[in-house]
Structures are given as structure tokens and as C-alpha cells.
Amino acid sequence: MRISRIYVGEPLAIGSSIKLDSAASHYIRNVLRLKHDAIVALFNGQDESDYQSRLEFDRKQTIAIIESSIHARTESSLDSEIIQGLSRSDHLDLALQKCTELGVKRFSIFNAERSQIPLKPAQQVKRLAHWRAITAKACEQSGRHHLPAIEFYKSLEAALDATIREHSKILLDFTGEPLHNCLKRAGQEGRVSILVGPEGGLSEHEIRKAGSHDFLSARLGPRVLRTETAAIASLAIVQALCGDFET
Q1: pLDDT tens track for 197-232
Q2: CATH number of 5-71
Q3: Which of 4, 241, 5, 234 is nearest to 104 (CA)?
Q4: Has residue 246 got a pLDDT over 80?
Q5: Where do the domains of the chain lie?
Q6: pLDDT > 90: what percent of the chain?
Q7: CATH top-level class for 79-242?
């Protein structure tokens, strides 16, 4: 039987006891419906181990007693980044979830000129916490041990200035070359940043700005994809071409 995995953002060691927070406790008690002495696997994003733990319940508290650990390499060999124009919440949430499952290392989210509802500074802390919770759940499900980094930028220019220089830089653009051709031209095997616009795409000004930062325009095929589909599909293709997908 598959053992449920729980993300715990604190140090873990065999023999220690961890009081799980209210969200994890609710998930264990009311969603998984686990009982006293059930086994779960904890991970903390700091190493590549699952810590096998036995559950105990003390009234409203859920306690995990760590009994052993299992090392497993599940992180992708592809050093990948999705640079995503802020889109509708449900669209962005799906892209975060699925790209995390596919092994993305970083998300750089920015207010695009065509973002329908730009993110205001007062909303950033709450929204970042929401996005990180989504990626934590995706790591629990997929077997990953390290949560992808998530940063928010006020504009595309700010996001581009933070892009890793040594990466292949790909801009998803319906008028570009096939993606595999762009990857060959970029020449940075195993390291890629993929720029995706929001609903409605990037503006002409943003496309020119990306080009000035050495982004190559790439297309995924003859059909117009939703923003979240484009991010997921492009990362899956790159994983197959130069990542750890077996092809």
C-alpha cells in the first residue's frame, strides 16, 4: 500500500517527535482518515529522504514519531525555470501544480501588461503562501523532496533581469521556430528558462524586451494553447529532450 507523504518545514531526525500543524493534521485526520499507529512519510525540503513516521493522536494534536528514513533521488536533472505572466488564479494554480510534478526548479511570476488583475504589493505575501502550498502538495503527490523556488516580480523586465544567464532562454510564441530547434541553437543542455505570457499573450513591447535578453521564440505546434497548457506542455517536451524523462 502506498504511504502518504507529508511536507514538514522543519528539521527531521530518526527518534524525534514532530507536532504537525493544523493543516497537516486536518489532512491526516479528515481527508486520509488515518488512525493511531498509521505510518506516513515526512519530508522537509532540505534533503532527499522520506522519514517513515508513526502517528499518535492527543486530542486535537497529531504527533509523528520518526522511526526510519529512506533516501530516494526523485529531483530532476533538468535545471528548469518557468517565467509566467500572472494569469487567472485557477489557470496559474494548475500550471504550478503540474510543472512541480514535472520537476521544475523555479517559478518566476510577473505582472504582465495583459494580466487581467495585476497583483498588488499588499496581496503578495498571501498569494506567495498560497502558491507555495500548492507546490508542497504537488511534491507530496509526486515524490519530490525539494519544493521549487517561487518569486514574484512587478514586471517582465524585473523578471528578466533575474533570469539565470547560463540558461537556454525560450519564449513561447506562435510565430517562432519549433521548440527543439531553439533548444539546439541555445546550446545550454540541461538548463532552460521558459517564458510564458498570460491570457492574451505578451505585448509586442514585452516580446521585444525578451528578445533583447537573448530569448529565442519557439512554437509548440499548430494549435493555440491556453497559458497553463503551454507551460506544462513545453516543460514536458524539454524534459523529454534534455531532462530525465525516458524517451
Answers
A1: 999 999 999 999 999 999 999 999 899 999 999 999
A2: 2.40.240.20
A3: 234
A4: no
A5: 5-71, 79-242
A6: 84
A7: alpha beta
Q: What is the pLDDT of residues 79-105, one digit of tens each?
A: 999 999 999 999 999 999 999 999 999
Q: What pTM, to 2 d.p., does this model score?
A: 0.92
| Length, in residues, of the chain | 247
How big is the chain by its Cα radius of gyration, in Å?
20
Identify the burial level of 222 via C-beta atoms within 10 angstroms of its C-beta, where 0-12 means exposed, 13-18 middle and 19 or more buried: exposed
Distances from the Cα of 191 to the Cα of 7, 27, 75, 103, 150, angstroms: 27, 36, 14, 13, 17
